[in-house]
Amino acid sequence: MVATKLTTLMKKCSTVKHAKQIHAQIITNNLTHLEPIFIHRILLCDITNYKTISNYILSILHHLRNPDSFSWGCVIRFFSQKGQFVEAVSLYVQMRRIGLCPSSHAVSSILKSCARVEDDLCGLLIHGHVHKFGFDACVYVQTALLDLYCKIGDVVTARKVFDEMPDKNVVSWNSLLSGYIKGGNLDEGQRFFDEIPLKDVISWNCMVSGYAKAGKMDRACYLFQQMPERNFASWNTMITGYVDCGSIVEARELFDAMPRRNSVSLITMIAGYSKSGDVHSARELFDQMDDKDLLSYNAMIACYAQSSKPKEALDLFNVMLKPDSSLHPDKMTLASVISACSQLGNLEHWRWIESQINNFGIVLDDHLATALIDLYAKCGSIDKAYELFHGLRKRDVVAYSAMIYGCGINGRASDAVELFERMAGECIIPNLVTYTGILTAYNHAGLAEEGYRCFISMKDNGIVPSVDHYGIMVDLLGRAGWLDEAYKLIMKMPMQPNVGVWGALLLACRLHDNLKLGEIAVQHCIKLESETAGYYSLLSGIYATVGKWNDAKKLTTGVEGKKIIKIPGCSWTQLV
DNA sequence: CTAGGGTTAG
C-alpha cells in the first residue's frame, strides 16, 4: 500500500529535501487526500532552516486543492511554534477571509502569538472567537487564553478564565502560576503553587525562578533542593539568579555541580564572568564549548566589547565569519561589534561596519542605531550621528548620553547642553554616563562656571558623582586656573582620589606654573603609580619655568622616555 | 508553562 508506506516515510522525514521527495511521490500517486496529514507530519520535522521550510509549507498550503480548517490550523501552529507570530496572525486573518472556521489548533496558536507580541487588541478579538466557535471546553484553547491574559498583565481575568475551565491540566496551573510570578506577586504565587495537585518540573522551575529573579536566593535554593526532579532549566535558573546578584562564585559552584551542562549554562556563566570583569574565565568556558552557536559567539564578543577589549571582540567576530562556520551574525552580534569599533575610534571601521550591516541584511533598531551614533560621533561625524538620533523611534537615556558625549568631544558644548535640557523636558533622568558626557562638553569648551554648577546639580537627580566625574571637574577647574578650588574639591572627595584626579591637577599646575600644588600632586601620583617619568617631567617643567633650575635638573636626571597618562574627560594626553 | 545574548563613560 503506497499510502501507508508514504505515511511511514513522512514520520521519519527530517529535511526539506526529503520532504520534497515525499511530496513529489504523493503528487505522482495522486494521493492528494493525504496532504492535510502530510502538512501535519512535516510540522513535526526538526528542521533547522526555518526560512526555507516556512516558504515551502506556505507553497504546499496554497497548492492544496481544498485546504480545510485542519490544514490551516497545522500551518498556523507551525508559524506560531517557530516564533513567526506576525505571520501566524496574518494567516489566521486570511483563513477567516475565506470563511473557514478555525480549528482548536488555529485558535490556541493565534492566542499564543498574540500573547508573545503582547497584542491585547487582537487577543480580545480572538477571545470572542473562542466562544463563537465553541471552544469553551477545550483545555488547550482555554489555557492559551488564560496565558494571554497573564502575558498582557491582566491576572484577574486570567484567574476568571482559570476558575471557569471545566478541565485543567498542569499547563493551565503553570500558566497562571507564571502570571502571578511575572506580576511580582510571590506570596500569592507560593500559595497557588502549594495548591497545584500534580506539580511537574516546570511548576517548580517557575517558583524557583520567581524567587531567583527577586534576588531571594536563599528561598530559591531551599526549593531547588526539594525538587523531585531537575532539568537544565532548573539548574540554569539558579545560576542566572546567582549571576544577577553578583555571586559569581556561587554560580560557578552550581555550574560545576551540574550533572550535565548545556549551552545555556555556559552562556550564562560567560555573561556572568563578563559582568564581574573576569574575561579570562569567560574565554576559558567559551573554548570548552563543543558546538558554538550564534548565542555563544554573541556572549563572548559582548564580553570583550564590554571589557574594553575591542581588538579581541573584532578578532572573534572574524573567526565567527570564517567560511566553514555557517554562522549568520544578527543584531546582537553587530551591536557589540559596533561598540568595539567605536572604542577603537578608527575611521576605517565605519565603512566596514556599514558593509557588514548590508551584507547580513541587518535591519537597524534603536539599540543598534544608538551604537552607531556613538561610532559616528567618535569618528567626528556629528551630523551623521544627529541624523540617526532624529530617526530613533524612542530616544532613551542611552541614546541621549551617547549624543551628548559625542557633542562634547566634538567641541559642540551648546548642542550638548541643548540635548541635556531637552532630555530633562522629556522626563528622562540622566545617569552617571550622561553626566560624564555633559561635563566633558563643558570641559572641552572651557566653561568652568557652568560645568561646576552642573556638577553640583548632580545630587538633585540623586546621582552620586564617581571618581571619574571628580577627575573631569579637577581638570575643568584646573585648566581655568582655579587651582585652589580644584585642590579643595579633591580634599572634599568622599572616595580616594585616583591617579587621574591627581594627574589632572598636576597638568593644571604645569599649565599655570603652580609649584606648591604641583609638588603635592606629583607626590600622590607617584604613590599611586610607580611609572613616574611623566609626572617628574611635568614637575620639572614647573621648576624650570619658575627658575628653580637645580631642582629641575635633579628631577630630570635618570628620567627618560615618555609617559602617557589618562585624564578623564579629555583625550589621551601625551606628556613630555 | 521554566533557563541564555545587544547600545552610552572609564
UniProtKB/TrEMBL annotation:
InterPro entries: E_motif, PPR_At4g14850-like_plant, PPR_rpt, TPR-like_helical_dom_sf. It comes from Medicago truncatula. PPR repeats lie at residues 68-102, 169-199, 200-234, 262-296, 396-430, 431-465. Keywords: Repeat. The keyword NAD does not apply. Belongs to the PPR family. PCMP-E subfamily. This is PPR containing plant-like protein. GO terms for biological process: RNA modification. GO terms for molecular function: RNA binding. Pfam families: E_motif (PF20431), PPR (PF01535), PPR_2 (PF13041). The lineage of its organism: Eukaryota, Viridiplantae, Streptophyta, Embryophyta, Tracheophyta. NCBIfam families: PPR.
